Each structure stands twice: as structure tokens, then as C-alpha cells.
Amino acid sequence: MSVGKNDEVQLFYYFFESESESERDPQNDPLVLSLTGGPGCSSLYAIAFEFGPINFDFSTYGSSLPSLVLNSYSWTKMANMIFVDWPVGAGFSYTTNPESYYTSDSKSPKDVYKFLQKWFLMHPMFLKNPLYIQGESYAGKIAPMIAWEISKANEAGLLPQMYLQGYFVGNPITDVYLVKNEKVPYAHNMGLISDEYFKLAECSCNGEYVIPDLNNVQCHYALQLINECLEDLNTYFILDSTCPNSNIAKRDQTFTEVDSVTIALPSSRPKPACREQYYTISETWANNPYVREALHIREGTKGEWVRYNKSVAYAVDVASSAEYHLLLSKKGYRGLVYSGDHDMEAPYSSTLKWIRSLNLTLDDDWRQWKVDKQIAGFTQRYGENGSSFLTFATIKGSGHTAPEFAPKACFAMISRWLSYNPL
């Protein structure tokens, strides 16, 4: 879909109609626009490793083109979903003008709004569907900004009018500084550093752990002790193993023939202990010429597909997007913010800090929420006059991409929230 100045930016997307278990009804089910983090991660990551309708079958990897298996906890069972390779440069998105690769926090939400404008003109039958914007990690910072662009456009009478209902974000990096600074207190709360080390840092650094005073020798010493404790920790999921070599060699194989494409039930074969090994399947699959042809990738527009393009030309020009949550809540839009509680990349405690800074009215205080009579996490809700504007939830025992580690719990959470039911 072409967006931006002179339509030079080409945003690639995947669209899945809903597959409701009781009655497939894409014409009435919610429509969710989903963005993956980074910035620079392909949306295929969310599709295949988190909450999309398919996963890769690891049992076939190495002998043939990786096959696909159904995901029992796909969010497409309750909503139509558009997954966008955002920003330009991520996944299969590209631009015909090299200068257009430069984008930012302030520019990219406008591009995504333009994307939605054109998408709805091509699919007007979905204009009456409730619309939600979803993002995780760094895209969790951008999602409420996109929702605000839609809200402003609707009020200005721009067409097409979109039936925006709200947004939901997972482990969002809403405030980059706050996220980074909260890692030390979080590590202490999780038992990763000693009381003595934390007290030394707390007293000597004056709460500044990101850019401490260069002349504060004691603070630097305390942070050095802490860094040594956290070395080799998987900060995306502190319970998970780390790869012995982060630069895992890709399998040197090309497939000259395509086996019959099948989508089966999930394999019983366990995934490898090192999660990065499982991720390499997506690179083998997405770089296969037959797959790229089937996905309608324009020949010559993209070189090698990578799961996370860390070289995207992206400027962080918005320090925090917390204010957009407040603006949207005042307009009556619903918001859900969820966090895996074992994520140290965007600690749930940092999220709670910016939520509380909004001074919203607490409607439902901290409590358990359950799935199959078991505690799935904890939640609290903010609202006024019986209306729930912002819900916060933790996902117990989960990491940075919560649906990847707790698919059943996250499926239940989103299903309840989209249905206007309490968690």
C-alpha cells in the first residue's frame, strides 16, 4: 500500500479475515491493525510466533521448506487482523526513494493513518466494524499516536470515517527513558541483584541509572556490580535460556522445488532450547522464492528478508506517548495495556509509573484475573461514571512478547476485553 510523499513508501501487509469458532462473521467482528516493535521487526514475527493464525512446524525444518501448523490461540478467531510491516524498511516494506527511508515517531503514525485510509477505500465493507489499533514493544509507543490521528481525522470530517473504538498495547516502550531507568529497581524486585548492591546504587545514583554523573565514582561502581550480575541474562524473558552464540549460522540450503503445502495441527515435537534457533525458520521461509511469489513480493524491491532490521532509519523524536493515552481516555476510547511480568526490556513497573502519572480515576483496584480457575496475572482498571477507559494487566510468568510465552492467557484476555467483559 503506497503512502507518504508522492506515494513513494510501500507498506507491506498481511490481512486475515476472522474465523470465529461459533460462527465465522468477518463482516461484524472487530478489525485490528497490528504493528510489531523494534522499530524494524517484521509483522511476520507476530503472525508466526505470537498471535497469528499459523506457526512454523519445527519438526520439518532442515528437510524441506518449513511447513505451517494452526495456532489454536490465534486472535483471528475473534477479530479481522491487518499486520503491517512497519516502519518502512521493516519486513517487505520499501520505498522507491532512498530519502523516504528516514521516518520518525512523529511521522510514522501519519503514514499508518494514510495506509488505513487507502485500505478502507479498497475494503469499504469493513468500515462499520469496530476498529482497534494494536502494538507491542516499541510499536506500543506508536499505537495510541495512530489512534489519536484517526480520532482527529474523524472529528475533522475526513473520509473515510473510521469506527475507532480503542487500542491495546503489549509491554509498550511508552517512555524510553523511564523504561531504561526502571531496569535496576525491577532487577532488584525480581531477586536478580542483592539488597546491598541496590541500596548502594539507590543512595549514590540518586535514582539516575541511565546517564549517571560522570564524576560520581560510587554510582559507577554500584552500576558495574549490577551489570556483572545481569550479564548473559535474557532480558526479554528472564526465565528463558540464552543462545551460546547469538549469531547463529543460518542453514545453508535452498529449495528448488516446493513440497505440497499443508497446514496441519500443531506438532508434538518440542521446540529447541534456544529460542533464536526457532526464529531462524522464518528467515528460511520468507526468503524462499516460491514463498515470496505467493506473497506477491514485487521482484527486485527487497533483498534478503530479516526478522528484525536494526538498520531502519528511524528518529526517536517523541520522548513519551503517555499523553496520548490521556487524550484518548478523555474522548471515551478504550485502552488495554498488558505486560509480561518477567520482561526486563520494558518492565511492567515502568508501565505502571506512567499510567499512574496520568491521574486517572481508579475504577477497579489491583486484583487477580484467572483462566481455567488459575491465576493468569493481575489487573486494575481506570474509568469514570461506570465507563472503563484504561485497563492494565500483567501476564504471569510471561516475557516481552507476552502472547509468545502465554498464548492461552493472552487469548482469554483479549477475547474478554474485545467483548467488553472484565478480565
TrEMBL record:
Is Protease there in the keyword field? yes
Say if the entry is tagged with keyword Cell division.
no
Gene3D superfamilies attached here?
Answer: alpha/beta hydrolase
One molecular function GO term is: serine-type carboxypeptidase activity
**GO terms for cellular component:** extracellular region
EC number assigned by the record:
3.4.16.-
Q: Which GO terms describe its biological process?
A: proteolysis
**What UniProt keywords are attached to this protein's entry?**
Carboxypeptidase, Glycoprotein, Hydrolase, Protease, Secreted
A Pfam family recorded for this sequence: Peptidase_S10
Where found in the cell?
A: Secreted
PANTHER family from the entry? Answer: SERINE CARBOXYPEPTIDASE-LIKE 7 ISOFORM X1 (PTHR11802:SF224), SERINE PROTEASE FAMILY S10 SERINE CARBOXYPEPTIDASE (PTHR11802)
Family as reported in the entry's similarity comment: Belongs to the peptidase S10 family.
This chain belongs to which protein, by name? Carboxypeptidase
- Write down the species: Penstemon smallii
